[in-house]
Design brief:
Oligomer: single chain
CATH topology: CNF1/YfiH-like putative cysteine hydrolases
Number of strands: 12
CATH architecture: 4-Layer Sandwich
CATH superfamily: CNF1/YfiH-like putative cysteine hydrolases
Number of domains: 1
Strand order of the largest sheet: 3-4-7-6-8-11
Distance between the termini: 21 Å
Strand content: 15-25%
Largest sheet: 6 strands, mixed
Bound molecules: zinc ion
Shape: globular
Order of helices and strands: EEHEEEEEHHEHEEHEE
Number of helices: 5
Structural class: alpha+beta
Radius of gyration: 17 Å
CATH class: Alpha Beta
């Protein structure tokens, strides 16, 4: 797992193929693996939590549906569920204490942390968002930042930080011309051309532009899922798996 710790006890991570597939809906995963039923996805999620230093089953995931819907952490991780997680594409922890995960394979995993107004350390609410083409254009990042600010994050520039994780890059993400035109008309920074000269969208550049316009300080992991075999890519290998962006806390006060 690629990992940074930007503030005392706060950790941001992006997993890869090495951690294994984290999604129950692809690659041999099944919701029958929910609590107490061993299987490759449960094992991968538990292995990740061991690496995070988080109790098994404690991390919260979503059932992602390419929407701009944001929900709050419930305090119950995946291990406490008897069925699929709630349908949404962004998850906010108002206290910043819940371990959160968002799953991707070409779409962007975006992880957020925040300072309370006037604060120095990132001790405020945290969030994760799934930003593919549809979610990005429909405003999932704006909705997530709104919810963070409504949960106590400061609204001055730089009081929210975002880590835009690995996704398909603007030179690989080919789309039909009308889709490029539509995307670029809504987010000009997303206009792109593939390395082979066809219409494309640059989701990472689009996400960075949206976040910077909102006054968010952006960190970017510019690995391309389509080009890097250590990451899952839906376009390169459909159904092979999902990796995750995660945020969690350790030490005093952590759940
Ligand atoms: Zn690429």
């Amino acid at each position: 797992m690629f990992r940074v710790s930007p503030s005392p006890g706060l950790h941001i991570g992006f997993t890869g193929v090495g951690t294994g597939n984290l999604a129950f809906h692809v690659s041999g995963g099944t919701t029958a693996q929910y609590p107490g039923r061993p299987g490759p996805v449960s094992e991968a999620r538990t292995r990740l939590e061991r690496e995070m230093g988080v109790a098994p089953g404690r991390t919260e995931y979503l059932t992602q549906v390419h929407s701009a819907r944001v929900v709050e952490a419930t305090g119950n991780g995946w291990g406490a569920r008897s069925g699929p997680a709630e349908e949404a594409d962004a998850l906010v922890s108002p206290t910043g204490q819940d371990p959160l995960a968002v799953m991707v394979a070409d779409c962007l995993p975006v992880v957020f942390a925040s300072r309370p107004p006037g604060g120095v350390d990132l001790t405020g609410p945290t969030a994760v968002a799934h930003a593919g083409r549809r979610g990005l254009l429909d405003g999932v990042l704006e909705a997530t930042v709104d919810r963070l600010r409504g949960s106590g994050a400061g609204s001055a520039p730089g009081e929210i930080e975002a880590w835009v994780g690995p996704g398909i890059c603007g030179r690989c993400y080919e789309v039909p011309e009308d889709m490029r035109r539509d995307g670029a008309s809504r987010i000009p920074a997303a206009d792109s051309t593939t390395s082979w000269g066809t219409p494309a969208l640059d989701l990472p550049a689009g996400a960075v532009a949206v976040l910077e316009r909102l006054g968010v300080t952006v960190h970017r992991d510019d690995r391309c899922t389509f080009e890097d075999g250590r990451l899952f890519s839906h376009r390169r290998a459909p159904g092979e798996g999902r990796f995750a962006g995660v945020v969690w806390r350790t030490g005093e006060g952590a759940a």
